[in-house]
Specification:
Length: 178
């Protein structure tokens, strides 16, 4: 050959040794394995984050609706406006009308009969959660005590609740006894 161009076959010293070639192959395999592991871990993390966000959203709406319903549907003849104040913070739209229909008999007789109504949410399930909208099924236990006679009664209720997020708060937009 002329002109200074060398062929690898002419100079075997320029070729990597079999040991060097194996090292390069091992390093390349390790890098590819690490990249694959990272990619699969990142994909799993994205899926978990979506599930975590859904779970957090469900937990948030459940807690806010539970606490709001317990306060709104409780009544104490000595502090008759407490439940109404909680209701103003929780209910909007048709839920406000429905709440008034459900609580007005208690308020109407509450002062005369000196009633204390304690409401406790015993179970809440989110049946649908789509962004800023949620549907829940809520089970309540209520116990009423008349201070004038000492008589106590208890009952349970089941409510279908629709809610939407408004800023940091969940508001109940519809409320149906089931």
């Amino acid at each position: 050959m002329s002109g200074g161009t060398r062929s690898r076959r002419e100079h075997p010293d320029d070729m990597p040794s079999p040991v060097t070639a194996r090292r390069v192959a091992v390093v390349l395999a390790a890098v590819l394995t690490a990249c694959g592991f990272w990619a699969s871990t990142a994909a799993l993390a994205l899926r978990l984050n979506a599930d975590d966000r859904t779970a957090l959203g469900a937990g948030e709406v459940t807690a806010q609706v539970r606490d709001g319903l317990q306060r709104a549907f409780s009544y104490d003849f000595e502090r008759p406006l407490d439940g109404a104040a909680a209701a103003r913070q929780l209910f909007t739209g048709s839920a406000t009308t429905r709440y008034e229909e459900l609580i007005s008999p208690v308020r109407d007789r509450g002062q005369d009969q000196r009633v204390r109504l304690a409401t406790r949410v015993v179970r809440t399930g989110v049946t649908d959660l789509d962004g800023d909208r949620a549907e829940l099924l809520v089970f309540l236990d209520q116990s009423a005590t008349r201070a004038d006679t000492g008589a106590t009664s208890a009952s349970g209720a089941r409510l279908h609740v629709q809610a939407r997020r408004s800023g940091p708060r969940w508001l109940v937009t519809d409320l149906r006894p089931e």
